[in-house]
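Myo-inositol 2-dehydrogenase / D-chiro-inositol 1-dehydrogenase
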Amino acid sequence: MRIAVIGAGRMGAIRAEDLLSGGAEVTLFNRRDNVAKELAQKLNCSSAEYADLLKLDFDGYVVATATNSHIAILDQLIPLGKPILCEKPISLTVEETDLVIEKSKKHGTEIQVGFQRRFDPPISVAAHKVSSGQVGTLYAMHMYAHDHQPSTLEFLEGSGSIYRDLHVHDFDLVRWITQSEIKKVYASQAVREHQQYAKYNDADVSLISLTTESGVQVAITGTRHNPVGHDVRFEVFGSKDSIAVGLNLKTPIHDIEGEISFSEIRYTGFIERFRQAFAQESHAFIEFVDGKTANPCPPINARQALRVAIACEESILSGSAVEL
């Protein structure tokens, strides 16, 4: 199986490494050909000139470039009719996302969206416990999304917002785990410490209250800085059980009672926290390209999660809850 990985940065390297370990033959492409060549030498795989991307034949494509380049690349790849794995988000606007969905349907092209948290083994187990009824009637969910280090100005320029970049993963998990669309959101935010966020009307702390159409209430807290490490976890409360995901010896929080023997070194970033999830997701793409499984995460999921993120921004502006 031949897979083209477009992008030779951090995510391109991860995708290429995982696809290679899954048995795929990988060719790297980057707008700067020398960067693709250097990474290919490190990973012991092939690279080719970016200008030849559409001239060569592949079984599938991975789009692992900056968000603002996704639409242009997808516009070229979709007519080929081959499976595509695109990192989230497809776009920062619903309108562009809809155009991609419409065009992919026209050409019969399947796009798998990179919501890697779905492939995190503990999260998958939690989702199964909910869907199988082991948790019972869902009462509520509490979610935590706390980055280790604050973002750079260069990153903030194209990230969209804390909702479109960070919390979009939480919104996808809420929909996936509850199997229900999100009906209403209320959001508040602030710049508490890191002033670069104010330049882009963004925030370094956020608090979200949302309700699903099925009636599940969810509280989400986010920060762009956690001095202890990268903290992504959640709790699900139901009539039969209460479960926690992401609470382990590497969770970056201090236990005042001192009863949990946390590791000295905690999660330092999202890649370390979800390294296994990325591998599972890339291997799932191989199965998908090979026709062994259905698309595990179609682009409608990117669209719906993005709608919630935008509703949060509208809530900030209006100071009131927003219905979707």
